[in-house]
Amino acid sequence: MDFEKIVDRKQTSSVKWDRAEKIFGSPDVLPMWVADMDFDNARPIKDALRKMIDEEVLGYTFPPDSLFTSISNWQKTKHNMPTERENILLSPGVLSSIAVAVQAFTEPGESVLIHEPVYPPFFSMVNKNERRVFRTSLDIEDGQYTMDFDDIERQFKDENIRLFVLSNPHNPGGRVWSEDELVQLVELCKKYKVILISDEIHSDLVYSEKTCVSPVTLDDSYKDWVVTLHSATKTFNIAGVKTSFILVFNEVLKAKLVKVQEETELDIVNTFGMRATEAALSESNEWHEALLEKLEANRSIVTDFFDKELPEVSYMVPEATYLFWFDASRLGVDDDKLRETFAQTGKIGLNDGISYGPSGKSYMRLNFAVPKSLLMDGLKRIKTVFDHYSN
Ligand SMILES: Cc1ncc(COP(=O)(O)O)c(C=O)c1O
């Protein structure tokens, strides 16, 4: 477990490193964008895969009981969510699960409500499935995103919303929604018969001052309205294995999901993903706890740097996720040029806020899940950009 080791990821088909030149238009950009950590994987995961390759034949496989047990135990101990095998559906990815949920719970042309700003594929998954996307903007209170319940209720009513997709915790703002907020949201869902999809892929990456709550655990009746999506891939940096899970406690909702999964073969996950997920959830707790300490230390490095070196730049302190959302409006650069500006002037690859929706305007997203030396390098590059534009 060495979170300071620099792993050379170039020429490994890494989206983060090997797509950077294409995305940012420059070969020497330091990539601190897509939510993928520059940390080597936990040893039990690598050992499990190595053992498999050395000792087994890679033919057809089915999910073993031990995989379901590892997911149940994780949900129970980390998320206070007692989960039986029959509540778990495997799925290649959280985005695949969103697509399945859209098809299972809505008809073409029906309406889906989503926060904005939010992780951009939420919009595209709904659009690609030919459902109508409605957006409800997040407010900012005390430097953190909050939900606008009046607007949510108005849209539930006026637009006949059938599905709400929630990022819990929130990407890109790093907000951990409070119990009160989640109760308000699910109560509205119950009132207007809207299914809530709670995407909890970042829910294991929560800082010590907060606890991420799964809305389905708040009241037994919420099981009829909430479907939870989760995965070991973000927590353990194994996104390449394409394996995730859906947690569903209502038989009718489950039957609808299973039908779509079976029709599309999206109920099958790959051998490596199953093995890696099980090793992650059942054997890599020590790595997970050390990771949280490392990320919390990095979060302090980032906020201290901004406070000291860029005091005029506002930002959101992430309560979860390794994503740092800061306001670049002082640069006076148009939104469609911000990403390029950081890439050309600072040689740093960041996500531009506008791609998360219109209210992401002027923001940039930094991924700080990297060794300290890379983080310091990245922060200096960001400062170079602000210094350049203030001269
Ligand atoms: C909120 C959120 N949901 C889903 C995903 C992607 O999940 P998957 O790779 O399992 O499709 C991400 C990736 O960053 C994410 O941030």
UniProtKB/TrEMBL annotation:
EC number of the protein: 4.4.1.13
Annotated family: Belongs to the class-II pyridoxal-phosphate-dependent aminotransferase family. MalY/PatB cystathionine beta-lyase subfamily.
Keywords of the record: Lyase, Pyridoxal phosphate
Native organism: Alkalibacterium putridalgicola
Gene Ontology molecular functions: cysteine-S-conjugate beta-lyase activity; pyridoxal phosphate binding
Annotated Aminotransferase class I/classII large domain residues: 34-373
InterPro entries recorded: Aminotransferase_I/II_large, C-S_lyase_PatB-like, Class-II_PLP-Dep_Aminotrans, PyrdxlP-dep_Trfase, PyrdxlP-dep_Trfase_major, PyrdxlP-dep_Trfase_small
Cofactor requirement: pyridoxal 5'-phosphate
Name of this chain's protein: cysteine-S-conjugate beta-lyase
